[in-house]
Amino acid sequence: MSISIEKNSGVAFLPFPEMDGILKDELKERFSFSMENAVSYGELLYIPDYNAKNSDGTFKVPYFCRSAMLEPFILKFDSIGEAAVELKKIQRSWASCSSTCFRRSALIQEKLPYINFKPKTFPVKLPASEIGLFCLLDKNMMIASAKTSSPLPAGKISFIEDHENPPSRAYLKIQESLSVADSIFGCGLPSDSSRCFEAGACPGGWTYVLVNLGAKVFAVDRSELVPSLMKNPLVEFLAHDAFTLKPESLGEFDWVFSDVICYPERLLEWIKMWLESGKTKKMICTIKMQGKTDWNLISKFEEIPDSKVVHLNYNKHELTFIHCQKD
């Protein structure tokens, strides 16, 4: 077999783990796109006739896709070495999402320039450039794309976990959301000069991360945080329903956070209240899905200027709203 490369139409989507069903629902309901011609290669969902595009001509990528092959092609090859050489001719950085021929895929990855797949220590600066994605279809053929929707290897990032100090696993979610916010908007991270407001802070997973960055945190919840945070001089706690407090009565904050379980409609109103008050320029909030997803409602979060809605690796059936207004 001689080496050959054949460009394909459409887009291939790699869902977040255990989110393939939700991804398909999003494609059908949000983009009104039929799955009639879709082909599954393990986790990878290839849609040859996908044509949903933004106003700038770029493909629309579903929230529940962690990386998309935006310019897919089929590469046929005889050997592992040939596959690696052909990929390197196209660009430097590649990651595998193969669901077959795992050993062969790993050997191809080893012959490519090194990519660090290890869990990261927070804080971390996310890479700026896209990373290619390849998926073996059999031992002599792959689908791949140099142009993808994520700068992360196969759209994945994980952090080194601390199993002793944080009061909940929610700390991983804010670590990722802060990293993504800085990557998208260049807004930096909270620091010792930052004043933060956290709604629904109990037991303190997000507050824990913020104070470890040196930030002062005004934490509001009906229940107290863990004792170590209640004693922390950087934490001011108020036992109250955070969503009933008015920004004008609280003053200005560099960052406003919420991981509260509430209806998305109420969260949207609360976000708009804060932004219209002018009391903050940066917000990170979890949009908790309740029942069938209202995609029209989710689009209203996206319509807020200087904002982005994303699905994080540490999100479950939820999305994250990020707002960073330039000073």
From TrEMBL:
Pfam families: FtsJ. Residues 168-261 form the Ribosomal RNA methyltransferase FtsJ domain. It comes from the Bacteria. Signal peptide: none annotated. Transmembrane segments: none annotated. GO terms for biological process: methylation. This is Ribosomal RNA methyltransferase FtsJ domain-containing protein.
